[in-house]
Design brief:
- This protein is 37% helix and 28% strand.
- The protein is of the alpha+beta class and 337 residues long.
- The chain is globular and about 65 Å long.
- The strands form two sheets. Strands 1, 2, 3, 4, 5, 6, 7 and 15 form an eight-stranded mixed beta sheet that branches. A seven-stranded mixed beta sheet has the order 9-10-11-12-13-8-14, sandwiched between helices.
């Protein structure tokens, strides 16, 4: 079967296919591409066609970092009923694009189950598991939203349920907004949180919020007590899920973070969403993992673990060995193994 791959500039066509095929693939959404453009990224969007029928979408971002240049297909490609032939055509096209742009490799992590068949297909086409740690929600904690609120509370860890109720009794108020003007409160906490925990702040959070909130797909939650903001979170509402994407707080005896999560879960239910995605968690057997503490917090709300295939790299230059070595050293030194 012959496929044609051409550029797509129709947002409605893109999103229709996305939400039908891979509603959890946040970073292949049209809006995420718009975020990347606003932070200076070079974004390209392609459709894979069988005649006039769309069979797949590929949104790429050019990354030119100190460790090397690569074509990033984050949460993609998105393929409907993928066959080995469709995969091979996709790889062929991406290699062609990467070579035109003098990239060293292609990185992709479609939101697909981690199966032996898919790993074998990747290996047969020259892909290697990326040396980076599991990010982008590859290993995540999700909560099924079909039960009623009382049942959701009953399914939580006892201490989590207690903290949600204590927050209400002790006067914690949760303020929610789509107004970017309130991001100043988030960033005040976020800067303090990054210093306290020693992590590098994400870039593009403001742009992300502004783009998604304009489409009513992002909400900022602020937990307040005594007139002071002590906790904050940005939740994305996309496809069939709500995603806990960014959080920040200051040390406090008041459980504002628990109250925020509960309000965000309730909002997801109101929107008719199927899943609340707490995003990335630490592996069960990794006691020193940097996400260990936040993982315990997330699991307290009940739910289950979901795993997707790890990011894979498709080298197109011998220079690929350099970024691979750098990422491997970083992953081990930062405790992600």
């Amino acid at each position: 079967m012959a496929y044609s791959i051409t550029s797509i500039d129709d947002a409605s066509q893109w999103e229709w296919f996305m939400l039908q095929t891979a509603p959890n693939a946040l970073f292949q959404s049209w809006n995420w591409g718009e975020v990347q453009k606003r932070v200076g990224g070079q974004v390209s969007r392609f459709g894979i066609f069988d005649g006039k029928t769309v069979r797949g979408l590929i949104q790429t971002v050019d990354v030119r970092a100190r460790r090397g240049a690569f074509l990033h297909v984050r949460h993609g490609p998105v393929l409907a009923a993928p066959t080995p032939v469709l995969w091979r055509e996709t790889f062929r096209f991406l290699k062609e694009q990467a070579r035109k742009k003098h990239m060293w490799f292609i990185r992709m992590n479609p939101v697909l189950p981690d199966t032996a068949d898919l790993r074998q297909l990747y290996a047969a086409n020259g892909l290697h598991p990326a040396a980076i740690h599991r990010m982008d929600g590859e290993q995540c904690w999700v909560l099924d939203l079909s039960p009623g609120e009382d049942a959701l509370l009953s399914g939580m860890r006892k201490t989590t349920r207690y903290e949600i109720r204590r927050a209400a009794k002790e006067g914690v108020e949760v303020f929610s907004t789509e107004n970017p003007a309130y991001l100043k409160d988030f960033f005040a906490l976020y800067t303090e949180t990054s210093v306290r925990h020693g992590f590098v702040q994400h870039t593009g959070i403001r742009e992300e919020f502004e783009v998604f909130a304009k489409k009513h797909q992002a909400v900022l939650y602020l937990g307040k007590a005594g007139g002071r903001t002590i906790s904050a979170a940005i939740i994305l509402y996309y496809g069939n899920q709500a995603i806990y994407h960014h959080g920040a707080s200051v040390p406090s005896k008041l459980p504002a973070s628990y109250a925020i999560q509960w309000e965000a879960i309730r909002e997801a239910k109101k929107r008719g969403m199927n899943v609340y995605n707490f995003w990335g968690i630490a592996p069960e057997n990794s006691a020193k993992h940097p996400w260990r503490g936040i993982t315990l917090f997330k699991k307290g709300f009940g739910g289950r673990e979901v795993n997707y295939i790890h990011a894979h790299d498709l080298p197109v230059s011998p220079l690929y060995v350099l970024p691979r070595t750098v990422e491997l050293v970083r992953r081990i030194s930062r405790g992600y193994d």
